[in-house]
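Repro:
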Amino acid sequence: MKLKKCNICGNKKANNHFKVKEMMFGLLDEFDYFQCFKCRCLQIAEIPKNLSDYYPKNYYSYEIVNEKFLNNQPRKFFRDLKNNYSIFKKGLFGKLLNCIYPNSAYGFLSNITLSKESSILDIGCGNGIFLYGLKCLGFNNLKGIDPFIKEEIKYKNNLQIFKKSIFQIKEKFDLIILNHSFEHMASPCDVISKISKLLNNNGVCVIRTPTIDSYSWEIYKENWVQLDAPRHLFIHSFSSLKIMTDINGLKISNFNTDSDSFQFWGSEQYLKKISLYSSVSFLVNPSKSIFNKSQIKSFEKKAKNLNKNLRGDQAVYYINKKSYNG
């Protein structure tokens, strides 16, 4: 087998190789991955020329937001209360909603000093559903970009999602978000370099992404659900991300893991050759899946414990400029 050089640190020696199958749609196409012995980054050995074929038209992040559904009252009222509390930690009723229905998609923003005037860029945002929720809360300086959407999207609330890559952006931002998009990017080193140029001096970049420094990778290896071959091109370790931030004048100021039960039921399904979108997948039809409620609760409890020890399978990295001491 030809030795592959790590795209992050350049190491060629003692890298471990893996064969990983496409399991989201159950296509079973096989792809070569390798893990760098030095920085531990897992990466696809060769990006498929037909990679776009693995992002069908109905790929979940590209379906246009159903505004009528999202704006239906009282659903919108309660959702906005919950999301607002997730970010700003204000409002008793919002707090109660978060206790009853935890795991808000916006909770990771609570660690950042934000105002509704903060300039925010969401890179690889797909249909813009995350920014749409912020727009509903009154954030008014939002920009979403994704080079793979069919065309520019403009919602009725004036939120715009542009068909652009990060390398086409010139203005600076207070907050740059890569919300489970970084692992899909073919040139992560170039992306981090560009982020350093787009970030205001006191700004923050947040990267949410699967992490190879996880219990689930160690246990499930090729059947780990968050490998998602061939769509996930790089799955980083803390070390590989630090290499890129260090050389670009950035620092990882904080990180945590926010994984959930998906890492277990998804991986257990893959072990049993059940694809993510199978008719008997827990994602598609929980009542017909191979799991009972007790098992799912056990997975949820296990995920919480792993997060407490920074061993969950998806990480949230908070990145600042090295010159910023805030």
